[in-house]
Amino acid sequence: MKKLLIITTFLVSNLFFAQEKTPKAIVEDFFIAFHAKDTVALRELCHPEIVLRTVANTKEGNKLKDEKFDEFLNSIATIPANLKIFEKLIDYKVEIDGNLAHVWTPYEFYVNDKLSHIGANAFTLYNDNGKWQIIHLIDTRRKK
Q: Which residues contact residue 48 at a Cβ distance below 8 angstroms, ignoring those fewer than 6 apart?
């Protein structure tokens, strides 16, 4: 009986830990929600105090722009149905140290199947008691 209890506990604990999503999976889920314009899912993946920034390449030079999370979600929610957006991720580079993770994703951004701009995303995540959350997102945007 004792052996059965130990084996059952082992199997259940492995099942539980196997379900924990990796930082890469969280970023993949972020883009699934982004493409679906699902602001509820985006909010679930991000910490309430997430910091959003963009390094924009302008005629005046590089500019660092901040965006409030609610404004970002509103901009996603108000994308017209006939406007197709798609961010094609070229690669993933993932680094993890304990409860801190960094995910780097170079990308190409398309609007109605036409290349709009390119750049890279840098996601910082932290593990809040078994649940990875995005706490910082900064990206670059430039014309090809």
A: 69
Identify which of 135, 138, 141 has the alpha carbon closest to the alpha carbon of residue 23: 135
pTM above 0.85, yes or no: no
Using alpha carbons, select from 67, 46, 44, 64 the residue that is nearest to residue 55.
Answer: 64
Q: Are the C-beta atoms of 109 and 26 separated by less than 8 Å?
A: no
Which residues lie below 8 Å from residue 11, measured CB to CB, with a gap of 6+?
A: none
Q: What is the DSSP string of 99-110?
A: TEEEEEEEEEEE
Buried b (16+ CB within 10 A) or exposed e, 43-71: eebbeeebebebbbeeeeeeeeeeeebee
pLDDT in tens, 62-111: 899 999 999 999 999 999 999 999 999 999 999 999 999 999 999 999 99
